[in-house]
Amino acid sequence: xxxxxxxxxxxxxxxxxxxxxxxxxxxxxxxxxxxxxxxxxxxxxxxxxxxxxxxxxxxxxxxxxxxxxxxxxxxxxxxxxxxxxxxxxxxxxxxxxxxxxxxxxxxxxxxxxxxxxxxxxxxxxxxxxxxxxxxxxxxxxxxxxxxxxxxxxxxxxxxxxxxxxxxxxxxxxxxxxxxxxxxxxxxxxxxxxxxxxxxxxxx
Length: 203
Ligand code: SAH
Description:
This protein is α/β, with parallel strands linked by helices. Helices cover 25% and strands 28% of the residues. It has one domain (2-192): Rossmann fold (3-Layer(aba) Sandwich), CATH 3.40.50.
């Protein structure tokens, strides 16, 4: 997976590649899908949601910049896989999921993989962020928003980075936004496809 799906497509950050090789993705999947754990695909995790494609997870981590020892918010916990990769990168991880059943599943998966003490799982509308734990050095959003959610931008540190798919329900661009004194600066934008972000500042 690391060689064929990540390195070959341009993921270069060795810390990210190491973290991706260390987190057992099969522990974040329903048992009948475990044989497909290292496929080059997003896979169903129940409740109409998916675990993101490994490449997207790696790409998001790389775009967040160095996160070791820094506070990071992961919006859309889903299976907990992205949060586990961030924990493996030594970030202080907060993750939020709107569906309570999936938040519980993320907690169980993170515990089984040994990351329970490094990730704080919350239930709620992640479009509003987690003001009680802000500011964040980086925020990763694993679901598509119609526009940049203002609350998430507000909860970034100065020079903090927000990675969020922005577009319609069916196609988006993964935007990398940096907080600056002049306002949001979009430093990169690549085509992508995610499930919708459902909430006050989402769809
Ligand atoms: N990072 C996850 C990806 C899950 S898919 C993983 O690695 O498995 C995106 C998730 O975002 C879904 O679980 C969905 O329920 C959740 N989601 C959608 N809108 C949300 C919102 N407003 N707040 C929090 N989570 C949300």
